Amino acid sequence: MGLLPFETFSEFGALIQLKYFHKLPAIDRNDVSLKFCYDKLNQVSRSFAMVIQELPDELKHPVAIFYLVLRGLDTVEDDTEYLKENPEAKHELLRTFYQKIRNPNFHLENCGGSLNATAHYADLMLHFDHVCKIFLSLDQKYQAVIEDVTMKMGCGMVDYLGMTGVDTVKDYDEYCHYVAGLVGIGLSDMFTAFGEDKQALFKVGLSGSSEDPLKKSLSNLMGLFLQKVNIIRDYAEDIEEGRTFYPSSAFQQFGLTQVTDLKDPKNLPQALKTLNYLVTDALSHAPDCLEYMSSIKDPKVFSFCAIPQVMAIATLVEIYNNPNVFVKNVKIRKGLTARIFMETKTLGDVQKWFSKFAADLRVKLEKNLDDPSAQQTKQALDNIQKKAGEKTMKNGLKISSGFGLVSVVSALVYYTLYGRSPSTVSATRGSSILGRLFGWTGLTPSGI
């Protein structure tokens, strides 16, 4: 019969727990606008929706609306067909979007419809008045944060509108600041309004290319880390839409001239060198992210910050030296995602995860020591493990809150019935419910 792998067993148990036993706090569904906002939040970002709904009550609605407002702004920017014939009007809308959200009747027709991802974006924009109504009901201190970040991001989007990429790593960092670093800064402003230590969250970090204290802050670097992982991972998806923000200096140093050259199979050696260079650059932010998270006091705020960061470093392990990045969107297993959700509660958990994934990537690096970035990658991993305290993550399932026993029994029953691990069964039964649930057939969880 063979032994059930601990890692498979743990992921399977976490999936059962997350899907069937993990209950999110209830939302007042009698409020039509609030119901719309949370329904739409779940439709446009399932991963973020879950961590947002577990925030403290005072922060839950402000962060949810912050996300939806920025998703709306991003939809205006991303929809290349919207106001195509009148670019100045589009620029003006992006610049003044922060003012529009003060209008309880504000909505946009025919916006978001050309995006390939999902029809939910168009529906969000069509009924954006619901988002505005909930925004206007928030405490003024949270409204001010949302307005400020939306204004700065909208103006930054105008500067980048129509661009299909960036040139240098410094340009790359600047772009990531506008699309993600500002989000990190805004969230930190909300957390400090809630009671977290402002000085600690805005401490100057060690990574990044900017000399600006705000752009060098831990809050900005948290956003840069997540955004860079998304940019690297999403190459195949983005290139189909005619853009990607891989800095041209990254691939030109390896003899390629156009970003599209990376997807040509004959250029795979140079493409992998580019990929590993960018993964190493992203890894450089990880110690600063650990420093930021060590300053968070509220356990719910901590989990909100930590889960996406752990998923990001897990993704870097998956995409390092992986040629599939240039042909499809590579993501981590659903089971691993579930386990991260269920087992990321404390700083010790995060340190263990970061140390584990640094060790996993080091194994891949040892087989790739001729890579031009190998020494820098090794140094980045050393820095992560030093900051994480050389912690290790056990493969076994955590049994906590009285539920672990249920997932253990469920997994054992399944194993007894089929005589093999869930991963083996799903590999041969790709259309089975378990196969779809467990994610071993190529189906993967939504991006963070």
TrEMBL record:
What are the EC numbers? Answer: 2.5.1.21
Annotated GO biological processes are: farnesyl diphosphate metabolic process; lipid biosynthetic process
Q: Which cofactor does it need?
A: Mg(2+)
For this protein, the record's CDD domains field holds: Trans_IPPS_HH
Q: Name one GO molecular function term.
A: squalene synthase [NAD(P)H] activity
Q: Which SUPFAM superfamilies match?
A: Terpenoid synthases
Classification via Gene3D superfamilies: Farnesyl Diphosphate Synthase (1.10.600.10)
**Entry keywords, A to Z:** Transferase
| GO CC aspect terms | endoplasmic reticulum membrane
Catalytic EC class:
transferase
Family under the similarity heading: Belongs to the phytoene/squalene synthase family.
Its recorded name reads squalene synthase
Q: Which organism is it from?
A: Naegleria gruberi
Q: What is the lineage of its organism?
A: Eukaryota, Discoba, Heterolobosea, Tetramitia, Eutetramitia
